[in-house]
Amino acid sequence: MVTSEQVARLAGVSRATVSRALNGSPRVSAEARKRIEEAIVSLGYEPDVVAQSLVRQRSRTIALCLFFGNDDSTVLSRFGETQHYFYLDMLRDVEREIADAHYDLLLHSSSIAQNNYIRGLQMRHVAGILAIALNPTDARIQALVEAQIPTVFIDSISQGQNSTYVSSDNLDGSRQATEHLIQLGHRRIMTLLPGTNGPVGSKRRAGYCQALEQAGLPIDERLIYPAGWNTEEAYRATMALLRERQPRDFTAIVAGSDLMAIGILRAIHECGLHIPGDISVVGFDDVDLCRYTEPPLTTIRQDRSAMAQGAVQQLIQMIEADDQLEERQLSPIITPTQLVVRASTGPAVPLA
Amino acid sequence: MVTSEQVARLAGVSRATVSRALNGSPRVSAEARKRIEEAIVSLGYEPDVVAQSLVRQRSRTIALCLFFGNDDSTVLSRFGETQHYFYLDMLRDVEREIADAHYDLLLHSSSIAQNNYIRGLQMRHVAGILAIALNPTDARIQALVEAQIPTVFIDSISQGQNSTYVSSDNLDGSRQATEHLIQLGHRRIMTLLPGTNGPVGSKRRAGYCQALEQAGLPIDERLIYPAGWNTEEAYRATMALLRERQPRDFTAIVAGSDLMAIGILRAIHECGLHIPGDISVVGFDDVDLCRYTEPPLTTIRQDRSAMAQGAVQQLIQMIEADDQLEERQLSPIITPTQLVVRASTGPAVPLA
DNA sequence: CTGAAAGCGCTTACAG
DNA sequence: CTGAAAGCGCTTACAG
């Protein structure tokens, strides 16, 4: 294991000078710099990041914190569940951004209480935190905000002195989806959404309502049907819906997400109905799978790479802005959404 | 930030004793231990893992290395691609196992050359490596093996002094899938598999052939059709197949994976054929989505949690077996596979 | 059983 | 521009 000591010896300088050269200090002569660089190459030296972290009291590591449930102790624990499928794609972009900035990504799993959770992060000297916390009442959110470690939340609207958030324009996306159906002649449009108080669901509900209002359509509580974010719950809810409502009182469904839409499609098929012949379905997210559903799914695209890029760049900016400007204004980043029309939506057919 | 110095002062002992108590050394008196524990609780002390890593020359971090392509510089870069969907589920189990053992998971992205790749891992003092390398010729595999850091590969059959692997019984799984179709009366059974030299594909091809042989059926090269692991390529291959083969010369398809099967189903639908009425399809992996395809997919289940558990436990055992026994025999772990019958397979119908 | 001391590999005021 | 020295927070022989 090559150390800076060996580099210094070979270059005929002190470790201090090697360190300065490495960290781009201007106070190093050209000759010294050259000799050091040669020594580094010939020895294959690379600085020990652990030692650097210790002395700098800060690592180049960004921790990923996912709180999908209240009890998930590991970062990925809930990632197999269909409702979180969307975030995976975004994580790819997140990792690329982080790598490009020469930071590492840590999945820090702590099965302990909240204060220990934060402490674990501090003891690892993480530089910053990227958090996706779907339940706004999760106590860890507030703990994170108070910990004063630079933090960017995705899809949670928490803000603080050292934290901000990025989110899609969920309201406008849902509005577009509903408007698309209205333009196709639909008047009785269901929406399946969780009954929780999360910001994502709330905004999507609001967008749905806004589109109806703009079109002068009434907002019927019977058209807003509760279902969890996952495929199975959406499937069950739709089955229940199709059985309860005889005769059927709707011609289209705005799904809370694409993965919910997949369950909805399946239920409609099983009841012997056609899509979009009998019922039109719109998803939300535009995950890759949308192209392979039967029929291919009309949906709302979230700009995942813009979300990831915005989140990471904002985070790194916060990390590297060592000057703690009191007046710093951290404005949230809201990325646009866009309707993608495929084959699961069509003209409304009159109800029986 | 509470340090061991403060704990020592409060407990009236030296830092050395605090360290011993913390690390479970027997050479600490009961009274000292008690006072130290009280001090730790009252101060909320937690050791600095960075300092520990430096002095121990080893962190409690396990790096995740995914080499899905030859050029992926980030760990997750290829995870959005359908062909790697399966590994995500396994990663969940992997993370849980790692967390339970009180290790951290690092996604180490290095966009640099191979020797720097290894060096980056060494400089971070990672304790061990979990690697999924789908291309057996990837130079990083050999570099990893030679680096002598404890490593467990998943689905690559690399072994070395400090490395071993875990894999499903791919051959037997594919054999079961094919046998299932034979029992349903199918005689002309296609298989769609990548033409690469990866161990997973090779084993699955061998299992397919073995089932045919055991049934006394000929192995027709025209029945082994090349297609990449992803949904899109499987879709395109099937479309081409259905156009080329007029009249059609097969009644069933063994897909290389579930995500390939999804593309195959879509192509069959688009050609106006029925599943399993016209063509039966079997997948491989048993991802959650199988239940939601149209029709629900018959497939081969891989025991992901057994794979994850085997991999992590083996890895940690290697890490903590500080005694480098020369005669240590690291035997690979092969987990069983199992047929899951759903609705995409049915009796063979005679070909025109 | 316990403490003083050295050391892990680096960085950074402090002098010069 | 450069080096000697101190220090980041811990662990571990070495004495006692």
Structural write-up:
The structure is a homodimer of 352-residue chains. The first copy, chain A, has 352 residues and is α/β, with parallel strands linked by helices. Chain A has helices spanning 4-11, 15-22, 30-43, 49-56, 85-100, 114-123, 139-147, 170-183, 199-214, 231-244, 258-270, 304-320, and strands at residues 61-67, 104-107, 128-133, 151-154, 163-168, 189-193, 224-226, 252-255, 280-282, 299-302, 333-335, 337-340. Chain A folds into 3 domains: 4-47, 434 Repressor (Amino-terminal Domain) (Orthogonal Bundle); 61-168 and 304-335, Rossmann fold, CATH 3.40.50.2300; 170-302, Rossmann fold, CATH 3.40.50. The first copy, chain A, has 12 helices and 12 strands. In chain A, the strands form 3 sheets. In chain A, strands 2-1-3-4-5-11 form a 6-stranded parallel sheet, with helices on both faces. In chain A, strands 7-6-8-9 form a 4-stranded parallel sheet. Chain A is elongated, with a radius of gyration of 26 Å. The termini of chain A are far apart. The model of chain A has no long low-confidence stretch (mean pLDDT 90). The interface between A and B is large, with 56 and 56 residues. Strand 2 of chain A pairs antiparallel with strand 2 (104-107) of chain B, so a sheet runs across the interface. Chain A binds a DNA duplex (16 and 16 nucleotides) through helix 2 and helix 4.
